Amino acid sequence: MADYTIDDLLGGEVSVGGTATYTKEYKIGDFMVEGIKVEKAYDAAGFLNYQLAATSLPKWKAQGYLQYHTGPHNLRLTVNYIHKYIDQRTSILAPNPQTGQVNTAGRRSPSPCC
Question: Are the beta carbons of 19 and 1 closer than 8 angstroms?
Fold first, then answer.
C-alpha cells in the first residue's frame, strides 16, 4: 500500500496511491460430512472454485487512484485490477459435487446497456 500527497499544486491538493494483494496459496482441507470425505483438500488460489467450498480467488488484486482536491470540489479517478483465474468447470451437465444436482439451463448475464 502506498499514498503520496502534494500540497498546493495548481491551487489544490493532489494525492496518488494504490494497494495490491497477492494470494500465494489458500489451502482448503478435506470436506467431511458425517465422517465421509465429499471433497478432497485443494489450493483455491487462482481458481474460480465453482461448486466448491471456496469462492473465486484470483491471485492478484490491485487498486490505484489519482485525486485532485480544491475548496469544496474533489475529483478522483480510481482503477481496479483483478487478475485472471482458472475456470475448472468441465460442463454445465456435470453434477454439483456437493448436491448432485445438474444445472442444464446455465446462467445468463443481463445486458450491460439499455
Answer: yes
Q: Are residues 14 and 62 in the same domain?
A: yes
If asked whether residues 53 and 34 sit together in one domain, one would say yes
Per-residue pLDDT reduced to its tens digit, 30-46: 888 888 888 788 888 88
- HSE on the CB side for 72, CA within 13 Å? 0
- Cβ-contact 76, 85 below 8 angstroms: no
User: Residue 30 has which C-alpha cell?
Assistant: 478435506
Closest CA to 6 of 76, 14, 17: 14
Confidence of residue 114 (pLDDT cuts 50, 70, 90): very low
Domain membership of residue 50 as a residue range: 25-57
Check whether 108 has a pLDDT greater than 50.
Answer: no
pLDDT band at 113 (very low <50, low <70, confident <90, very high): very low
CB proximity list for 89: less than 8 A, separation 6 or greater: 48, 50, 51
Q: How many other C-beta atoms can be found within 10 angstroms of the C-beta atom of residue 67?
A: 17
